[in-house]
Amino acid sequence: MEYLIGIQGPDFVLVAADNVAASSIIQMKHDYDKMFKLSEKILLLCVGEAGDTVQFAEYIQKNVQLYKMRNGYELSPAAAANFTRKNLADYLRSRTPYHVNLLLAGYDEADGPGLYYMDYLSALAKAPFAAHGYGAFLTLSILDRYYRPGDSALSLIRLNKRFILNLPSFTVRLIDKDGIHDMEKLPVAPGG
Amino acid sequence: KTCIYTHKQKHFTHFCSRKNRVPTLFSSTFSSLSPHQQPFQLSHGTTTLGFIFQDGVIAAADTRASCKGLICCPTSQKIMPIHSHLVVNTSGSGADCMLWERILTREMRLYQLRHRKRLSINGAAKLLSMMLHPFKDQNTKNVLSFGGRSGPRVCYVCSDGLQLKGEIISVGSGSPYAYAVLDDGWRWGMTVDEAVALAREAVFRATHWDAYSGNNVDLFHITAHGWRRRDREDLKEEYYRERERKRKKIKEREKERQKREGDELGEGDIYSVHCG
């Protein structure tokens, strides 16, 4: 099952997604990237129905870039999140609904870091931490217990390492005022 | 009659049980959102594969077209060349495969005429994926194999929209068996003969275990100069060769065992050696 997680810190957002692309019982790829870069400081993480994820995420990605080309400045994370939600909601009651669960993470100059949780029924919520997938059941309670708003990046990365599930590896990225940074790819760590 | 036969391409529609989707938490609510109902269940009774190595791409497939319990055609062609450097393997409903192959060929040719350059494999995969998206319930899976200036590539496109680029791809009901053989024997630095032998072995093992794959194996080798097709090989021959090899091995083992026993007897009988 696919897994996404995002944690917001005081001046950064940390996001991780698993790397598996599966087709029924076969793991077709072990290094599949589920993060889509919407702009220099916004990442969209997308899981769900096989084709819908890429189709929808790329549609949003291109539209955000088009906005920048037309208007000369980029959409803020809040605006991008609301734009995504509107599109998902419009498609929901059409003949081709998109079955995708999203996390949108971004850094705004004015508002600071932001993490937005969106599910396939286009419910949008800004949250300090969020997760999708079966892994969410396990990790959300841990996050409740240990998350503190002023945490530094390092402690949150350690927190991240602690609950890696039965998935072989994860891509981890950090967004702060300097943009999107790739963290090391985390392999499976038995017992953290 | 439940199958439709066309003279040209020898593809058949076949109806078998559908492969299960990965169960999701909200599957019950999701099914009420899906627009189309399947008239009957479709499946992917085939083994096709493609992998890249240092000297290009190998594309291989079996040739059995099945229709529930009946083999409609033991000599169908599942690998179709699109242009001189691109080849597509298909699995799924035969009619859909044929249709999409032709549509893809047409679109790529139009692109080439309009833009005076060939579409790359990423472009072809994207194009096919976009064209298939409105027909998500059509249930075809394609492996595109390309060997060109940008190097050998193999790409998997599924009618539900999944598009993956990789080094080893296999689709169909026999694909798990083929994956096992390929994962074990694949190296980037293989020679052409080794790669062809690996592909043949993978298809052979898959056809052995999978009821819906069998008969012959088609092999294509694609390099920067274009694709080359090998003669269709009957897997029955391969099966008998395998049996011969096993028989020889057993004989050799027997001989070794007898030799060892003979030596042991010899060692135990000291007097015959030293006094003899």
UniProtKB/TrEMBL annotation, chain A:
Q: Which Gene3D superfamilies match?
A: Glutamine Phosphoribosylpyrophosphate, subunit 1, domain 1 (3.60.20.10)
Q: Keywords of this protein's UniProt record, alphabetized?
A: Cytoplasm, Nucleus, Proteasome
Signal peptide span: none
Principal location listed in the UniProt entry:
cytoplasm
Q: Which GO terms describe its cellular component?
A: cytoplasm; nucleus; proteasome core complex
Q: Where in the cell is it found?
A: Cytoplasm; Nucleus
InterPro entries, A to Z: Ntn_hydrolases_N, Proteasome_beta2, Proteasome_bsu_CS, Proteasome_sua/b, Proteasome_suB-type
- State the superkingdom: Eukaryota
Task: Give an example GO biological process.
Answer: proteasomal protein catabolic process
PROSITE patterns referenced in this protein's UniProt entry, alphabetically: PROTEASOME_BETA_1 (PS00854), PROTEASOME_BETA_2 (PS51476)
Q: What subunit structure does UniProt give?
A: The 26S proteasome consists of a 20S proteasome core and two 19S regulatory subunits. The 20S proteasome core is a barrel-shaped complex made of 28 subunits that are arranged in four stacked rings. The two outer rings are each formed by seven alpha subunits, and the two inner rings are formed by seven beta subunits. The proteolytic activity is exerted by three beta-subunits PSMB5, PSMB6 and PSMB7. Component of the proteasome complex.
Q: What does this protein do?
A: Component of the proteasome, a multicatalytic proteinase complex which is characterized by its ability to cleave peptides with Arg, Phe, Tyr, Leu, and Glu adjacent to the leaving group at neutral or slightly basic pH. The proteasome has an ATP-dependent proteolytic activity.
Q: Which PANTHER family match?
A: METALLOPROTEASE TLDD, PROTEASOME SUBUNIT BETA TYPE-1
User: What's the family?
Assistant: Belongs to the peptidase T1B family.
Q: What is this protein called?
A: Proteasome subunit beta
What is the organism field in this record?
A: Sinocyclocheilus grahami
UniProtKB/TrEMBL annotation, chain B:
Output the PROSITE patterns linked to this UniProt entry: PROTEASOME_BETA_1, PROTEASOME_BETA_2
| Ranges where the record places region Disordered | 242-276
User: Where, by residue number, is the active site?
Assistant: T46
- Per the record, what is one GO cellular component? proteasome core complex
Domain of life assignment: Eukaryota
Task: Give the reaction(s) catalysed.
Answer: Cleavage of peptide bonds with very broad specificity
List GO BP terms, alphabetically: proteolysis involved in protein catabolic process
Which coarse location class describes where this protein primarily resides? Answer: cytoplasm
**What keywords are annotated for this sequence in UniProt?**
Cytoplasm, Hydrolase, Nucleus, Protease, Proteasome, Threonine protease
List the SUPFAM superfamilies hit by this protein, alphabetically.
N-terminal nucleophile aminohydrolases (Ntn hydrolases)
Listed GO MF terms: threonine-type endopeptidase activity
The similarity annotation says: Belongs to the peptidase T1B family.
Alphabetical list of PANTHER family matching this protein: METALLOPROTEASE TLDD (PTHR32194), PROTEASOME SUBUNIT BETA (PTHR32194:SF15)
Protein name listed in UniProt: Proteasome subunit beta
Which organism is this protein's natural source? Sinocyclocheilus rhinocerous
